[in-house]
Amino acid sequence: MATGICRLHPGIVIELKGIVWSLIRPCRGLFRNAGFHYHEVMAWFKRDKPALQTPSEQERRVRTEGLFDKCPDCGSFIWKKELEGSLFVCPKCSYHHRINASQRLKFLLDNGRYQEFDSHLESSDPLGFVDRKSYKERLEAAVKTTGGKEAVVNAEGSIQGHEVVCAAMEYSFIGGSMGSVVGEKITRAVERSLASRKPLVIVSASGGARMMEGVLSLMQMAKISTALALLHEERIAYISVLTDPTTGGVTASFAMLGDLNIAEPNALIGFAGPRVIEQTIRQKLPEGFQRSEFLLEHGMLDAVISRSELKEFIADWLTFMTNGR
Ligand SMILES: [Zn+2]
Question: Could you tell me the CA-to-CA distances from 163 to 232, 290, 325 in Å, in that order?
């Protein structure tokens, strides 16, 4: 411990202790002889100005998070607003980002307006299925994240003036998998199309049948296909739009049964995954296998259309298919 006399206030003799003393101790001779300004020393430790206001962790997150998206293909960071303006297609490399069902319906239907129907249908858990989590828990989590009750949204609206029934699949809902409710909703969309004679458009994005519902989900393939056969008999147009990814039981049924089957660029479309096929046939698969362009080249699709041209393309074909009606 030491004492010091303030230069400006010689009456003040202060005791230096603790951390202050340990900091100025190397210069203690100087302080003793010349005296020092108490306030000068203390200014090192006291803050005259108000402390810098740093935003809290939560505020920081709100300001910066979610403004940019990284393109999974070219890796560039794109301002979300810009991405939204380009219908979620990367302006640098034209990669088609996955979009949810409501965005899809907004982009496809006139003025982004549509009337949803059958939104109340929700899955039960007929088999009491449990894997790492119970099916019930998975359903609850999916309802929470997507805000919808199932992996498909049914709607009525119009595409450049053509009134249509449109079903858009929601990939974020348990991988867009097809359980009994998805099957039922799509069948109802087909039936509505039959009753109203409006053309049907189904936008697929699915990992296939929902394994948590076992054979019940496989039965949906037959159910929807039968309904579509009736639509075909009635000569009502059905356009199937396949987006990334469309696989399994969905590809094996309604997604490939359109009067016109079109896909977005570079979408993964297939029945079994490439790894399973490679292991089965013991051969290396060619480059681009199961991508839209490959399927178009091999006659599995009628067209590959970019998202920005999709609406106009469908409208032109509806004019052609409905004979301008
Ligand atoms: Zn990109």
Answer: 18, 32, 10
